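Example S7 (structure tokens).
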């Protein structure tokens, strides 16, 4: 039997010949300093990007020579200040909102008094409730004018022109029941006129019973071609 090699020789054979790489330790202070610098850089970039734009400074312009420029005759005829003006038109009380000439003309045509603004406002825009009230006044005035101009709402039969009422007899033998029967009897003009048809049922019945002039179905049927070499619309020629 062979003897095992000595322990020293075995240890020398198993020894690591190359040196291991040294482990690098991260310094916490250096890492915190780098993170702080990065955050400051991001903050500076965001501040620069979100900064409001500044108007560019106007370039210096050369002074214009206006001494030798001729003024128009219209400018020379104007007064030097407003005190030299003649009659100045007097303005009335301010109106509520910015109304146009069309609304003013419509209100004047319907006889609606203008709504003057009595309170002081810094906002010249009209309010929704005031616009709604003005629209309601105009619509009510328009409906009232249409109702005044419209004819009678209902007319039953062809009533004749009103004439002088017949004088009632003063005889003592006058019977009231005969007069009531005469009034209840329909007039010949009313009997000749057809009864009113508010729902137009006669027209609906005539439309439902009327047959269409053209047939609904096409009488021509699809047929196979007599020859496979027949050229028809939509055929592809290779």
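Recovered sequence:
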């Amino acid at each position: 039997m062979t003897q095992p090699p000595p322990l020293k020789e075995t240890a020398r054979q198993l020894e690591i010949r190359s040196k291991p790489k040294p482990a690098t330790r991260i310094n916490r202070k250096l890492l915190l300093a780098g993170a702080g610098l990065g955050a400051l850089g991001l903050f500076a970039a965001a501040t620069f990007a979100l900064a409001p734009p500044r108007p560019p400074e106007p370039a210096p312009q050369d002074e214009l020579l206006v001494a030798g420029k001729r003024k128009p005759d219209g400018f020379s005829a104007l007064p030097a200040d407003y005190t030299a003006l003649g009659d100045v038109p007097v303005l009335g009380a301010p109106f509520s909102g910015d109304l146009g000439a069309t609304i003013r003309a419509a209100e004047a045509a319907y006889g609606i008094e203008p709504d003057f603004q009595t309170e002081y406002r810094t906002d010249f825009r009209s309010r929704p409730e005031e616009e709604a009230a003005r629209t309601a006044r105009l619509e009510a005035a328009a409906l009232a004018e249409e109702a005044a101009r419209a004819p009678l709402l209902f007319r039953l039969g062809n009533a004749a022109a009103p004439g002088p009422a017949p004088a009632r007899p003063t005889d003592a033998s006058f019977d009231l029941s005969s007069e009531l029967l005469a009034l209840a009897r329909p007039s010949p003009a009313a009997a000749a006129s057809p009864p009113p048809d508010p729902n137009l049922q006669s027209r609906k019945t005539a439309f439902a019973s009327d047959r269409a002039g053209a047939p609904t179905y096409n009488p021509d049927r699809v047929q196979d071609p007599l020859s496979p070499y027949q050229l028809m619309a939509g055929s592809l020629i290779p």
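Notes on this example. The two ends are 96 Å apart (CA to CA).
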